[in-house]
Automatic annotation (TrEMBL):
Keyword Metal-binding attached: yes
NCBIfam families per UniProt: RdgB/HAM1 family non-canonical purine NTP pyrophosphatase
UniProt: Mg(2+) binding residues: E43, D72
Top enzyme category: hydrolase
GO BP of this protein: nucleotide metabolic process; purine nucleoside triphosphate catabolic process
GO MF, one annotated term: ribonucleoside triphosphate phosphatase activity
Record Pfam families: Ham1p_like (PF01725)
Cofactor note: Binds 1 Mg(2+) ion per subunit.
Protein name: dITP/XTP pyrophosphatase
GO cellular component: cytosol
Length: 199
């Protein structure tokens, strides 16, 4: 794993891209985003995080000629039967509008009392060496928490101001980037991925 690798991160989400750059920095790999290669967003037609991550990775491999790392992730709220799940980025209707998505989540949980607002962040990562890679590496990470009634904090992205981490007594948007990366669904999944790449 000490050799320099070139890797395209198959995402258009600036928050994810920042976290991957931070997480992968110690490895000194050559990292580009799919936008750097003029690759547009893959259509997320899968019914699982795994299927969508495979679609994103394959499109990025095809468009770049490089190995790709894709992330499909989201928030599963127990009181909502696991919603918004794979539809987290499109929850409000508008793709990727964090504020509108957070507003819709607060509305959906308006009548749900504290103690019944448990949720999980899930992250599936796919590492695909080339578009026909028959054995892409697939890993996942989850992170339990609770959904707040009001946003807290300025850091992170997406649902982070509403995601309470009981162990820390803080929302994710109040955690330092380093701490989030160490304990998050994405950080855990990436640790598992790097272990498999080392083999
Ligand atoms: O650590 C996180 N902190 C806050 N929110 C998060 C996190 N991880 C996922 N999320 C939310 C953002 C988005 O609403 C959805 C992911 O959707 P997802 O399709 O995987 O990503 P995306 O559309 O934002 O970018 P892209 O598909 O180009 O990677 O879950
Ligand atoms: Mg997406």
């Amino acid at each position: 794993m000490s050799a320099t690798r070139s890797l395209v991160v198959a995402s258009n989400n600036a928050g994810k891209l920042r976290e991957f750059r931070e997480l992968l920095e110690p490895l000194a790999w050559e990292i580009t985003s799919q936008a750097d290669h003029g690759i547009s967003a893959a259509e997320e037609t899968g019914l699982t995080f795994v299927e969508n991550a495979l679609l994103k990775a394959r499109a990025a491999c095809l468009g770049s000629g490089l190995p790709a790392l894709a992330d499909d992730s989201g928030l599963a709220v127990t009181a909502l039967g696991g919603a918004p799940g794979i539809y987290s980025a499109r929850y409000s209707g508008a793709q990727g509008d964090d504020q509108a998505n957070n507003d819709r989540l607060l509305e959906a949980l308006a009548e749900v009392p504290e103690g019944q607002r448990g949720a999980q962040y899930h992250c599936v990562l796919v590492y695909m060496r080339h578009p026909e890679d028959p054995v892409p590496i697939i890993v996942q990470g989850s992170w339990p928490g609770e959904i707040l009634s009001l946003p807290r904090g300025e850091g992170g992205f997406g649902y982070d101001p509403l995601f309470w981490v009981p162990d820390q007594g803080l929302s994710v948007a109040e955690l330092s980037p380093d701490l989030k990366n160490r304990i998050s669904h994405r950080g855990r999944a990436l640790t598992a991925l790097l272990e498999q790449l080392e083999r």
